[in-house]
Write a structure and sequence with these properties.
Alpha-Beta Plaits, binds zinc ion, alpha+beta, 2 domains, eight-stranded mixed β-sheet, Aminopeptidase, single chain, four-stranded antiparallel β-sheet
Amino acid sequence: MSKAELENNEEIQIFREYLRIPSVHPNVDYTPCVEFLKRQAASLDLPVEIVYPVNEKNPVVLIKWEGKQPNLPAIILNSHMDVVPVFPEKWTHDPFSADLDDEGRIYARGTQDTKEIGTQYLGAIRVLKAKGFQPKRTVYVSFVPDEEVGGYLGMREFVHTDHFKNMNLGFSMDEGSSSLDDGYYVYYAERTAWHLRFKISGTAGHGSILLPNTAGEKFNFIVNKMMEFRSSQVKMLARDSSLFFGDVTTVNMTIVNGGVQNNVVPAMLEVVFDLRIAIDVDLDGLEKQIRDWCEEAGGGIELVFEQKDEYVPPTKVDETNPFWLAFEKATKELNLEIRPHVCPGGTDSRFIRSKGIPALGFSPINNTPILLHDHDEYIRADSYLHGIEVYTKVIAAIADV
Ligand code: ZN
């Protein structure tokens, strides 16, 4: 398609309008997103409901396409409305003007994460409705707030509401990521996130004395153990080319603080580690190992879990999951090369899976650099339109299971 054709394409116009809403952290104003989505629902002749799981500043928008058998468990197609901050000086285009360049690339924050899938779902429903298709199962298209900062005001809480329960969901789709080649990633699980603060106390005193049992010695012991653990994972990933980023545990030191004065041995030093634990790791065993290290270091270490996600079982990607089979068949018919993996990052899918609902993370973007959260985030317009074709097939298949 020429640039002029793309500019006049209705789907591209809708997408670019959504991208121009600066629903950017911090303190996101979702009002324009809600207004935009209400208009989209009206143009599709579908009812829309706005719910507020936590507070009035954080709406969840639900567009409902009722199925022929509304008593069957429904499908949810989720995306988040919020986007991460930008450093405009690092961009070659205004991050909220959704410029279309001569190569057919659309530049804006949210083009890969996740405004694209939100309006692609709607584009696919437009195609299906025009064909006279009515799904067997009810399909909800949901647009949630707050995903980029943990979902505390969005999906994390929404899944605990009666509203969510009454939707009677049987299967979910949400964001994935682009791939650099012809293939497509589909994520069926996420690692378990722990944010661990070690509050290390020790003998305080004058900086001129070799005091016993100091916080510094214990700090050194703990940091070494955690870094050895980290190295083991780096080696594991390097050794086995069949492993994906999401298959190993990541261990990263993120915050260090403590000390009062240059010549005073401090009573307390603190260090925080961000861990994303591989799905095959025994969590109780790992916690015991870390607690044993604290004792070996000399004791006096308080372990504070600032985040301690529970283990969430993966979604089955085999013949026991009829939704997976429908997804696989639909993507095969489109000749897409699908690669199931554990998602390296965290998405709202984990909250849905924690309720026992199977969930896949999938963004139909290939041959595109992974630019989510990066400068000059873009998507190719033809890739965007192809994604609508993919969802047209996929939504019809999973809604008819
Ligand atoms: Zn995202």
